[in-house]
Amino acid sequence: MKRAISRLWIPLVLVVVLAVSGLIVMRLHRIFGSQNLNAAGVSIKIVQFHPKILVYDVFGSAGSTAQIDYFDADANTHEVNIELPWSLTISTTLRHGQHAEEAYWLSASSAPPSRLVCCSTR
Fold it and tell me: Looking at residues 54-83, what average pLDDT do you find?
């Protein structure tokens, strides 16, 4: 008998510890981890939002070309060499920080130098 107890005491303790741990976790899930998202009786409010539409425009002398650099909706940079006028419309629901309009950037230069007008509207 003593030999059987000396061989089985570790597995028995392990089974008891696992059973008690499982009961504690189940009890804590009932208290804190309710699967009901409205457990507090408060309805979930769906916030309406409107997509941000940003339009980049570059104007210049007729037939002139410009190198244009800009950020897209995901803040990736793009560079295009294109004939003017040029326009690009970006629509996004992402918000890039507290002041979303500061996350967008547009730059244009032309060769030979000519008058360029760069605009971004939202």
Answer: 84
